[in-house]
Amino acid sequence: MTDHSALLRPAAAEFLRVAAAAQPLTAPTPCTGYDVRGLLNHLLYWGPWLAAAGRRETYTATGTEADAVLVGEDWLATLEKQTEDLVDAFAPAAAWEGLATLGSATMPAATVGDMVLGEFVIHGWDLARAAGTPLTCSEEATAAAEAVRASAVAMGEQARAMGVYGPEVPVPAGAPALDRALGASGRDPAWTV
C-alpha cells in the first residue's frame, strides 16, 4: 500500500462541500440501507475510530452505530471538525507505516488510511447523489478515485464478506476512475434519486 496523505485534504474539501448540500436528511442514498441522516450518523460514528487508528491510540465508543444518534442541529460543524481531525491524523507519513488497530482488528496502517480516503470519496459521492449535485473530480480527486479503486479491488472480497460492499457492479475499463471505484465498491455509477 502507498501513502496517500497528499490526496486527503482535497478529497476532504470536496466531501464537505457535498455533505453541506445533502438535504433533506431523509433523502435516499446509493449506500444501501442509509438515507442521508443514517449515512451522516455512520460517518460521525466511525470517524473517531479511524482517527484513533491513525494516531495509534485506543478508542472505544459507547454503544453501537445502530444505537448512536449523532446527527443533531450542529451536525455539519461536527462533521467539519471530525474531517479535519481525520486529515490531521493521517497527514504524517508515519500514520501510513506499520500496523494500526481499528477496533479489535489489526491491519496495515495504509489500509486504514485508504479507508479514510474511501470514506471521503465513496461516501462523498453517496451524499452528492442524494443531493443531486456532482462530485467534482479535480486532478487530485481523480488521483484519489484511482487510489480508492485500487483499495476497493484489493479489499473487495473481504469487504463483501463483511457486508461493507455490495456485489461488484460491472463498469467499462475505460470509464472514469471514480466510476470504476464505485463499481468496485458495489455502487452503480448511474444511480439517481
TrEMBL record:
UniProt organism field: Amycolatopsis carbonis
Domain of life of the native organism: Bacteria
Domain Mycothiol-dependent maleylpyruvate isomerase metal-binding, chain residue ranges per copy: 9-128
UniProt-listed InterPro entries: CHP03086, DinB/YfiT-like, Maleyloyr_isom, MDMPI_metal-binding
GO molecular function: metal ion binding
Name recorded for this polypeptide: TIGR03086 family metal-binding protein
